[in-house]
Design goal:
4 strands, 4-stranded mixed β-sheet, alpha+beta, about 40% strand
Length: about 70
């Protein structure tokens, strides 16, 4: 996941992708990383991340990492 995150084990799956345990390489903090296939006809994860940010008050410290790469 680039140089910022390290992908760990799969911890679940959702309607739009699989969820993995990840590590922020700068802080060492554990995060959840949801992956969606780049081949999907109707990508949802970017929209989902925007909704989470709105629900969380737009604060930047909400850790929601989205990658389209499966």
């Amino acid at each position: 996941m680039g140089k910022k995150y390290r992908l760990g084990r799969k911890i679940g799956s959702g309607s739009f992708g699989d969820i993995y345990l990840g590590t922020n390489m700068t802080t060492g903090e554990e995060v959840a990383i949801k992956l969606e296939s780049v081949k999907t006809k109707h990508p949802q994860l970017l929209y989902e991340s925007k909704i989470y940010r709105i629900l969380h008050g737009g604060r930047k410290y909400l850790y929601f990492v989205v990658f389209n790469c499966m």
